[in-house]
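input
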Amino acid sequence: SRRALEHALVEAGFVFDIAGVESIEEEVEIRNWRVTTRQGARTFQTRLDDWPRELPGGGLLIRDVAGDLYRLGDVKELDKKSRDLMWAFVD
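output
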C-alpha cells in the first residue's frame, strides 16, 4: 500500500528532512513551500487538498507534486517562525 511504501522510504532515508520552514504560500489549487533541509534549501509545491500525513513514529510526511517526500520531525523543535507557519497542519 502507499502508506507502507512511504513509511519504508522514510525509514530508508529517501526523503528530505525539513529543518525549518521559510514560507508557505497558497495559490489556486497549489501550495508553495520554501524550506531548509539537511540537504540544503528547497522549494516545492503540493496540491491544496494534499495535507501532510502523520507518521507512526511521530512527525509529518509531505509529498510534493513531483512525488518527492519531505519529513518534518517534532514541530516543537522548530524555530518560532517555522512553528507559526506549520500551525494549520498540526493538532
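quick obs: Strands lie at 16-27, 30-37, 40-47, 53-54, 60-63, 69-72.
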